[in-house]
Specification:
CATH architecture: Sandwich
CATH class: Mainly Beta
Radius of gyration: 16 Å
Number of domains: 1
Number of strands: 16
Order of helices and strands: EHEEEEEEEEEEEEEEE
Shape: globular
Helix content: under 10%
Oligomer: single chain
Length: 163
């Protein structure tokens, strides 16, 4: 089977706009705390939760490498999901807009060490794909009743490659 390639590009706020928010320390902190020893970069992502509460969970994933075969995408209609790596390694983020209840053409991004991402509510995305480190992530997402996971298995998988 021949796979169509998706080239993973560096993760930037502009590239992911409308699908996810890039979470990173950039520029000057909003305020200094702890006697000036710590910079606070304040309110970097908006949680979007329907009928539930925000919770913090820990995810431990296997570590992957590129090329990566994308076979399935998922979305969460009742809440956004923030993925915050707990090691200093980047990870792969694959996002797609919705096209009539299915993922559209996927786009792939490589985060830099120290970056996290908040994937928008109801946005199609690939599975958690750490590319190094421990595979340990803090995840901030919706906790509550109701079906908050839709999976879509792709008819033809994609292969994510690096530029």
């Amino acid at each position: 089977m021949t796979l169509e390639n998706i080239t993973a590009r560096p993760a930037t706020a502009d590239a992911m706009a409308g699908l996810a928010q890039l979470i990173a320390c950039a520029g000057t902190p909003d305020k200094l705390i702890n006697k000036g020893l710590c910079g606070r970069f304040h309110d970097l992502a908006a949680l979007d939760i329907v009928e539930g509460k925000a919770g913090i969970s820990l995810f431990r994933s296997e570590v992957f490498s590129l090329p990566f075969t994308l076979e399935m995408m998922e979305r969460h209609p009742l809440g956004s999901q923030a993925f915050i790596p707990m090691s200093d390694a980047g990870f792969l983020v694959v996002l797609a807009e919705d096209e009539d209840g299915r993922p559209g053409a996927p786009r792939a991004y490589l985060t830099a060490p120290g970056q996290a991402v908040n994937i928008g509510r109801n946005v199609w995305h690939g599975v958690l794909t750490p590319l190094g480190g421990t595979g340990l992530f803090a995840v901030v997402d919706r906790i509550g009743d109701g079906a908050n996971l839709e999976e879509h298995w792709l008819d033809t998988p994609y292969q994510v490659v690096q530029d």
